[in-house]
Each structure stands twice: as C-alpha cells, then as structure tokens.
Amino acid sequence: xxxxxxxxxxxxxxxxxxxxxxxxxxxxxxxxxxxxxxxxxxxxxxxxxxxxxxxxxxxxxxxxxxxxxxxxxxxxxxxxxxxxxxxxxxxxxxxxxxxxxxxxxxxxxxxxxxxxxxxxxxxxxxxxxxxxxxxxxxxxxxxxxxxxxxxxxxxxxxxxxxxxxxxxxxxxxxxxxxxxxxxxxxxxxxxxxxxxxxxxxxxxxxxxxxxxxxxxxxxxxxxxxxxxxxxxxxxxxxxxxxxxxxxxxxxxxxxxxxxxxxxxxxxxxxxxxxxxxxxxxxxxxxxxxxxxxxxxxxxxxxxxxxxxxxxxxxxxxxxxxxxxxxxxxxxxxxxxxxxxxxxxxxxxxxxxxxxxxxxxxxxxxxxxxxxxxxxxxxx
Length: 379
Description:
Elements: H1 14-24, H2 32-44, E1 49-53, H3 56-66, E2 74-78, H4 87-91, E3 95-99, H5 110-116, E4 121-127, H6 136-146, E5 149-153, E6 161-162, E7 165-166, E8 173-177, E9 190-194, H7 200-207, H8 213-217, H9 237-248, H10 250-271, E10 282-283, E11 290-292, H11 296-308, H12 324-329, E12 330-332, H13 339-345, E13 346-348, H14 357-374
Parallel strand pairs: 2-3, 2-4, 3-12, 4-5, 5-8
Antiparallel strand pairs: 1-9, 6-7, 6-10, 8-9, 11-13
C-alpha cells in the first residue's frame, strides 16, 4: 500500500487550455484567461471583485500595502498558521499580537481577538483553517466596533461558507491560494478578493508594479505610467489557463473531497478517534481531515508507523510565536490554552479526489490500531 498525503488534482482539460495559450502567443499576465478566472471567482463571491495573483502570499502583501501598514502598527493573527499570514505585515514594520485557537476546529477565538485589540491595532487577520472558519460574523462585528480592518486568509477555503455566505466575503479584503496542495490549483497561484470597492482601483495599480497599465488597456488613459508603489503580482496566462479548467470543475471537486471527508468522519466515529470538526454554521470544503493523538509522543510514533505501512500522514504548523522570528516579530496575547497542545497532537490524513474509499478505510483502521493497540509509546 502506498498512499501519499496529497496528489495535485488534474481535471484532464488543462493541457489543451495551455496549448491554446501557447498558440495565441499571449503568455504574460492580464490576458483573456486571467480575466475569465477572475469572472469565474466573482460569480462565486457575490459583490466582490477579484484580482489573480502569483500566490496567496502576494495577495497578502497587497493587503498590507493597501492598508498602508507601517512601523508602530499592530496586527492580530492566530499563531497556528503559515508564516505568509503575517510576513507581509512584519516586513512593513508591524508588530504581531498572536492569539489562541479553539478546539476542535483549530480556528481563531473571537474572544481572544477582542481581548488583544489595542489603540495601535490596524488589522485583524483571520485564518480559515482546514477549509472551515471561526465565527467570522462575530469577528467582523468586533472589528467594526473597534474600527479595525478585517482581512480573511482564506487560502484553504474556496467554496466554504459561514451561515451560507462564502468565506472571503466578510472582510474588507481577503485572499485565496491555488498552490498545488489546495482544493483548486494551478501549481502556484492566488487571488486578492476586494469587498470594499474603495480599494479596487489602487489594488489594480499595486498588482501592475505601481502603474496604471490596466486603465491603459481599457482605454481610460492614452499611456500608462508609474503612479504608486507596487510589484509584479500578476499571474501568467499559462497558470490562468490551467486554473480556468479547475474552476469549471470546482463544484465536482468539492463534492468529491467532502465525500472523502465524511467517510473519514464516519470511520473515525466508529473507531473512537477524535478529529478536526467545525460548528454547524460552517459549510466547510473538505480541505483537511485531521485526527488528534493523545500527545506529541503518540503523534510522532503514529506518523512513523503509518509511513512504514506506506501511508503518508503529516503534522501541520509549528506555532509562530514559538519560532525564532515569531519571538522577534510579536508576542502571544493572553493564555495559550490550545495552540501548542493541539498543534502537537494534530495528524493530517491523506485527502485528494483520486483517493479510493478503501484507502480511507485502511488508513483509519491502521491509525485506530496504532492509537488503541500497539501504539503505546515506550516510556
């Protein structure tokens, strides 16, 4: 048995789409397929504007620029996340106030966010972990009450909802990822979601190296020039050609991932394993299925033993506030009740659309045997 953690999903029509771009000789960003992807995403995100970017990290860098983050500002974010969530803000001089997560969703606590707000707080960055979310409506209300911006790091959460509303549409700004580990992918890619239209025109400029090139191509100016700060954040037509085919199949891909996720859930319930799960108000997208070991020692033991059986299960984030850079860039606010404990206990199981149901059953049976039987860790 050989079951990798992830196999990037390929619809099957991507090669023909890329070949069409090559034949057109129009390869750089801002072409018709890039625009088509943006329109496809906007159709999924009512009242939002979307700009494709080369990565979710780039989209977050655009957020930091749009909000004019500067030295002396503070941002609030969970410690249980990838470095890209906070790096763009730290680069511009902000300090991070890391906050705790909740069990069993591993999403950020609204109460922890509100307690961490100070007069220097400029923005709250919420990470929608695992394809689900925290109570994002409550978090938006907290941000509005205190006059701070809300940014959604929705890298993992395309097609996910809260109370029926798409994730990525609650903050002034939000970001998606199309890295090959995500549900919908093009190898490397991302998107900036603009929900406050006051930021859209400047976002176009920042994405195009600080020029008003987009206005030029629309015929709004007779030549384009350097008008603002910016960088090269625009994705090529080759990536967009791949992504456009994935987006055409996003509903079917999500449906299959959810079917696998729920098979895991049923099997884990039958075998008495605790696992990552979300509130009823969250319509998650089946991005991650995680099981909780008793402690770090058991997790390490189980991952190693599963690998011996050909099953690649993995842990996830090392809390940022415990890292060398995290200690220099910010502080943990309040009590770390869950962050370190559950980051040490989490085991992510293989999940990709091409998985067979029998593989899911075999993985859970093997893990249950390890956790409840011969996985007793030597002391």
